[in-house]
Amino acid sequence: MTHSALGTARRADARHNVARILRAAVTCLGRDPAASMNDIAREAGVGRVTVYAHYPSREALVEAAMVHVLAEGDEVLATVDLTGDPRDGLRALIEAGWMLLAQSTSVLEAALAALPPGRVQDLHAGPEQRIHDLVRRGQALGVFRTDLPARWLASVLHHLLHGAVADVAAGRLDPADAPRYLSAVTLAAYGATGA
Amino acid sequence: MTHSALGTARRADARHNVARILRAAVTCLGRDPAASMNDIAREAGVGRVTVYAHYPSREALVEAAMVHVLAEGDEVLATVDLTGDPRDGLRALIEAGWMLLAQSTSVLEAALAALPPGRVQDLHAGPEQRIHDLVRRGQALGVFRTDLPARWLASVLHHLLHGAVADVAAGRLDPADAPRYLSAVTLAAYGATGA
């Protein structure tokens, strides 16, 4: 192998390891939000040293796992049609967002515990932007209220979605009811006409 | 001193120490949610051993501080008149609840970080019950929607209040706007007639 071919192979190896570690982190944290670096290394089939070579701390790895889950979620949200009636778009976004959240509750819990306050919401900038854009379009079309800023209305849905996850975890809310309950209060909170 | 007088004096000392430690915990955690047992002992003017004699772990002391703050808050909420129009009651409860939350954000943050998931919301059973009772009365009077359970509607306000605290902390919401924004979306979410 030439010097540069060796470099290319090493970089491919590193990418391969990163992918394995991230998949293992999502699996382990999904089972147990307190999963350790050792648990994740074992699941990935790599040594601890390899994990630390890519992620210098558990916090860094948990954040990377959260970013990975959000990127996958973003691909799903990108398929939701938001071009029609904003009220239907909101219902569809809530339905899809709820499914994604329900699948990633445990990774989210790990991230909330391991990352500095506010960091998890900052990482949600992508989904937040989708909601924000939809709210603004609904306001422009006159189907959502305009007496409150779009930013606050978008934040309302964020808080309700994450609050509903906590309610389900605490046994206070049946997950089967959640999307309908969320849509009902969010559409009303947005002052949706004809909802 | 007789044996029993000595016992009485010791118990009075212990009560006095507990009160000092709790006040110091609220002060220290209010300044810094990561305040240590040492910081709190120093603020209380007692030794570490005395703190540990009453609270075997930082988690136990943070929980006691949260309970103390909630009990003080409950005294304030008890003065809010909830006997008139439930819509006015809701606005008054949001206003008072917001003030209390804004004053105790840092203790709340410490509790969220130190206590097991769900514990902080469990400790809020008192304020939750006030909201729940108000929602049920509003439903019975026909001024709040009845197509969703009172429990979920009460939960909605809980999530929005705590979400707004996070928004303020992250610089996404002006605290001066918060009570009005919260009342506007909550009344709408509750389907309040004539709101």
From TrEMBL, chains A, B:
The keyword Transcription applies. Keywords: DNA-binding, Transcription, Transcription regulation. Residues 15-73 form the HTH tetR-type domain. GO terms for molecular function: DNA-binding transcription factor activity; transcription cis-regulatory region binding. Residues 36-55 bind DNA. This is TetR family transcriptional regulator. PROSITE patterns: HTH_TETR_2. SUPFAM superfamilies: Homeodomain-like, Tetracyclin repressor-like, C-terminal domain. Pfam families: TetR_N (PF00440). InterPro entries: Homeodomain-like_sf, HTH-type_TetR-like_transc_reg, HTH_TetR, Tet_transcr_reg_TetR-rel_C_sf. It comes from the Bacteria.
